[in-house]
Queue: 2 jobs
Job 1
Amino acid sequence: MKILTEHIDVPNIDTIDVFMKHGGYSAVQKAIKKMTPDEVTEEVKKSGLRGRGGAGFPVGMKWSFLAKPEGVPRYLVCNADESEPGTFKDHYLMWKSPHTLIEGMIVSSFALGANTSYIYVRGELMYVINILEKAIQEAYDKGLLGKNILGSGYDLDLFVQPGGGAYICGEETALLESLEGKRGNPRNKPPFPAVKGLWQCPTVVNNVESIAATSWIVNNGGDAYAAIGVGRSTGTKLISASGHIKKPGVYEIPLGITVEDFIYSDEWCGGIRDGHKLKAVVAGGSSVPILPAELILTTAAGEKRLMTYESLSDGGFATGTMLGSGGFVVMDETACIVHNTLTFAKFYHHESCGQCSPCREGTGWMDKVLHRIEHGQGRKEDIDLLVDVAKKIEGNTICPLGDAASWPVAAAIRHFRDEFEWHIEHPELATKPGAVFMRKGASWTK
Amino acid sequence: MSKIVFPAETLELVKKIIARYPDGKQKSALLPILHLAQAEWKWCSPEVMDYVASLLSISSIEVYEVASFYTMFHLEPVGEHVIEYCRTGPCCLMGGVEVYDHLKKRLKINTGETTKDGKFTIKEVECLAACGWGPVFQIREKYYMHLTKEKVDEIIDELSK
Ligand SMILES: Cc1cc2nc3c(=O)[nH]c(=O)nc-3n(C[C@H](O)[C@H](O)[C@H](O)COP(=O)(O)O)c2cc1C
Ligand code: SF4
Ligand code: FES
């Protein structure tokens, strides 16, 4: 079942004529000509579509919170900042099929009553920005954007905004600050963007994939979307698969397939690269807890784990993780958990905006302590120190970056404590190039 | 350095960019225009940032504080080709460390340095949203993916011509 990527490999699908030949922009026709904005919102609510940027908040519900005071403009801002390590699905979709996003932007803007919308793309993806701008121009030329779209009286202008290289601008209030030409410091909430967002006007911020999915929902109905998936995990999800698998790439999966299938089936990742064994997975981008092979394939209760929001988080953080942004990083026995955790800690240290002291100082501490463990200068008390610092950041900051920084460190120690101990106790072995601790009796130890 | 002014067609583009935002919100054009400025003058010198401030009728400090927040803007002179390699976990799993070490050896410089002939600068950056196609680096707008030592040599040979 493909919703977003059905035609993604059709030659020239990035041009509007080919895109329309494959049914593109039919959702705009249907929404604008045959539906009211509230009817579109109603279908999105029925679909059960949840935000694909990481938090999984229901899209229809978010839309219904949008304040609508008379005479005040409302905005839709698409979050295409995609900077969470392990995640590259929005990049892929916009690069291959820009009109899929643009169609969704028109449909969603119509539902929200926005007459100006922005797509905020991370600045490093300047080549994708050029692709989007060319596609937007094509849509203007066909009367799908601009004044009086398809003779309906509805006006919409759509612009692309480049970021400047800052992960924190993926956080929705930091993104709005950035779009206002400022440093990307997250705002205190409330007020939420739905009430005071861009230039203090009511604003909805949604992820690329969330917005792109709304076209299919308009065409086929919310019920049809909700029929795909399991329970509250409806529809399809783009998974960015990287690491030690045979076929890294972006896959659109129906939510509800088993993790085992996703890793080993030829339809998806194709299994672990030849001669190697699965050791660990970071299932939803760098922010979510890492799990060892056994726990990613089956829950602590012994059930097969599914690719759904609920199943991946089964067991809480003790034995579970999160679907997050769908950045699925697979590691075989050659991966050093300490090194990988260090790169993530460095990342959060670098990306902390510095407003809250627990995050600013704590990410620095974790980076520093992990650095010395990795480089053979670890001390016995360092592991508990890391756990303590992680705990002190969590829940004590303005935005969730603090939590996102502390979780991966805490989880790596929770599940791979022996690996950290080995680094500290045997620096002469651990600092050899390519050296990796092999746990006795583990399924990945040869 | 000659006087800092955008060419006429870039100035036209600047006007168009400012028109994307409501009246009085021209400050929103800051990031797009800083990108144009960096493309024109290679790095964001204080003079360049002052010029950008004047185009948007904002104070210079508003430009400095923004340019220094975002990692894409170079606040020091850089070489002709700036190579920005991704050092985050997933790229390292794909052999990134060895490939980037090779790059540094080949150019005989470290991260953050520029070759003596001013041709290359190497910078270390965080995840470039291309993790499944790693190791990755970026030179200007172009992504170079699935890097190996051999590929790095080919790219450097080509750019050294
Ligand atoms: C540090 C941080 C980084 C984030 N980065 C992104 C991102 O790159 N893309 C994204 O869509 N959401 C990101 N989010 C989530 C956004 O704040 C927001 O929840 C999301 O864009 C809402 O869209 P959705 O409901 O469609 O997922 C990030 C959140 C945090 C705290
Ligand atoms: S938690 Fe970190 S990134 Fe978020 S606002 Fe505080 S300092 Fe900034
Ligand atoms: S980790 Fe290198 S591109 Fe994401």
Job 2
Amino acid sequence: MNLVEFESVTKQYRLGEVEVTALNNVNFTVQKGDFVAITGPSGSGKTTMLNLIGCLDSATSGEIRVAGQPVSQLNDRELDILRSRTYGIIFQNFNLVPVLSALENVMLPLYLHPLSKAEMRNRAQAALAAVNLTRFAGFRPDQLSGGQRQRVAVARALVTEPKLILADEPTASLDTASALSLVELMKQLNTERKVTFVFSTHDQRLLQHVKRVVELRDGRLTDSAAGAPVKEGATQKADESEVA
Amino acid sequence: MWSMAFRNLYRDRRRTIATVIAVAAGLFAVLLFLGYIRFVESSLASVVIYRDANAHVQVYRKDGPEQLAASPAQYSLNSEEQALIHKISADLPHFQRASNQLAGVGVVQANNESAVFLARGIDPEFERALQEQSPFAATPPPEDGLLLTTQLQDLLGYPQKGTDLQLFSASYANRINAIEAPLLGDFSTGIEAIEDKGLKAPLTLLQSLYDTDAVSRVVIQLDNREHSAQFREQLAAELERQAPGRFEVTTWDHPQIGQLYTSFMGFFNMVFAFTGIVVFTIALTTIQHTVAMNVADRIREIGMLRSLGFGRKRIAGLFVRESVLTTVAAAVVATILAYLTIFTLALTGVETQLPRISEPAPLALQLPPLWALAAIVCVGAGITLGALMTARKRVGGEVRPGRRSVPLTHLLAASASVVLAVTLLPMQPQAMEPQVAEDAATPSEEVMRQWLREADLARGGWGSYQWKLRIHTKDPAGATDTNYDIAVRDGRALAMTTAPRRYRGEKILIASRAMWYAKPGLRKPVSISPQQRLVGEAANGDIASTQYARDYTPEYLGTEALDGTPCYKLKLTAATNSATYESIIYYLDRDSLLGVKAEFLTASGMPLKIAQFEYGNAVLVEGEEQPFVSRMKIVNANFPERYSVLEYAQVSPANPPESLFTVDTLMTL
Ligand SMILES: Nc1ncnc2c1ncn2[C@@H]1O[C@H](COP(=O)(O)OP(=O)(O)OP(=O)(O)O)[C@@H](O)[C@H]1O
Ligand SMILES: [Mg+2]
């Protein structure tokens, strides 16, 4: 089943008199278990697309459905709930709360779920373990390296067991080694835990590790991307999870 | 969330500290001012309760607080009522002691100066007990003499301490009376308006002046002023049950009693409210500004939280929590500083001048913890609400991590505007004096004076006579009769009381321009004025010696018929200050030239009393029979149920010796 569906989605920004078309008539789907990279030059609309998938912004025209439900019909509160139940988000610059420890940062999204403090703690610790940061649970962001911080961000995205993790250029602030190990981690989570990932990057080195690459150019999906060349694996995975 | 909010305070320490300081300064000001108000409040309260001896609860005759000054006798409490009040109040909880008090007016004399006094008669023992509880020094109560305010002493030319002062006034039976008592010292009434009239006397002494065992009120001291209202309720209910509609029970903060307290507290509370609002606005603006700055600084974080699914309210809540913590920190700082200041002030013994209290008082700010807490909670709640509004407004908007720019925060200018109401006193147009039409029939002043002389003659104004005068007085307090022997010689008169028995020996001497009052027990005669009340509606000047021709300037108002009798209508205006009345409308029978009716007016022309005369007596003067007044009825123009009837009997020509009419011999008679 389609987790996210874009049907002729267009997004325009208005800057005074000028109108910028960031996404132009995009059709696109994400399925359970997908591991999708969105690529393209700067200004091609990657961030815009992720924001739309994550319901952080609304389309100018066209329809976006999340788990079959058109998001344009949801009000603010319902969107908040949808976001907290469906997505985990990883940001380029980590966006950790500087005054909270790694563990507390990971616990943060759990405040929106009806859990006891102990459960929250256990789940956060498990998430940190999954990104190999158990030792650093008590450290504050400024005491961690860039790679570690981004792993904390991944743990934070994981902790709510979201249907889909969105990441906007998660490796942009990292050195090559850290970037590669982050992608490895994400892939591992994808295969072992069946976590669906959609992330943007313009780092060509990473793309060879990715099953499905979608390329944007001037707000349009290129043909190769629309053709979804590496689809077999994804469907296979989705089927497996459905059986389970 | 709270711990996150707390940790956020450390992010921009300088901003946090600045905010804490600003809010703490505001709260500190509020707390100190509150302490000061409470200090003033309790000082004024104890002045009213203890120093001014009003105690906590007062029992009056119904409407007494308003009416006592005008009709002291009518609104006083008799001994039976006093006993009832004492008995009931003593059985109620929190009662400590009760005492009778008397208030009254009169004239006090010393060094040939005289002045009006407003006296309070208090049981000295009771007053001493009250003074022991007072934080303000007070002169010990006069045991057997008088305390006068320095202003009143000044009016009397500063008589020496120990010299006898003479007080005279109308008794409760509405007749003149006087007493002597030594001046013992000073005191202050605490009320500027009556400070130049203040006189304090032992209750029994004042009762003897008013010749009564009635009192104006019973005051009751409780163990604590907090219980006043409750005690009042209980006492009033019980009194109402036993004597419906008879009594009125008040507490010390009744506007008629605690005037000093109520007026100043009204004023202070207003100032406090104003200051509070200004300080609050400043604190609120600071917090709002800080919240807005914090939101602007953390716009990325807000975006992140929103993309995690945190609602706008929840995020705003985080900022509100931060401002709550800031306010709490400020409150702690302000409270500690406030108490330190209060403590220091108490230690150093700084003194302050309280409004309308002559002596300086040690500045002991009073800030009970509960009051401080209440003030802080009020300010804190307001600030939190303001922070909430700002946070909601700022945090709102589209969710977009890291992209949105936030408009620059504006510092809301704190503005407190004072509206000054200027009361313009419109000029009162001067009423035009009605012009009396001067017609051809207008008699000359000489003629009118001759008429008046004729009229005076029939009222004993000229010549030498003696007669017996009976004054029957009636007012709502009751009816009295007093008899006098009158001797008159050419405008001078001596009146001696013959009945009732206990007033026998009283004398009133009218010696051309001056009047004197003497009675057994007084060492010196008291100088009185003709305008003063003698008995009931009769003034001293009414008793005898009517010399309108000498004392007034006549003006012709035409003719008018009274009960079918044609009369001249004259307007008499006082020409000397020994005249009994300011002005008189006098009606003279046109044929006999006898005074038929007189309307006595005040200086402003308001009717005071109306007198009617009958001439049923006749005397032989130089072989000629001449009519003489037999009855004069004086009715209060404003309260017709109050009147006095003067009956003249056994009028005969006489030849009293000159010596009878001198002050020196007055006491030896
Ligand atoms: N909030 C906005 N207001 C106006 N224009 C915007 C806004 N966000 C994006 N755009 C415009 O939309 C287009 C797509 O921007 P977007 O951020 O999606 O590109 P991107 O592929 O993520 O670029 P980069 O690789 O530099 O992050 C650009 O032309 C950009 O200027
Ligand atoms: Mg981008």
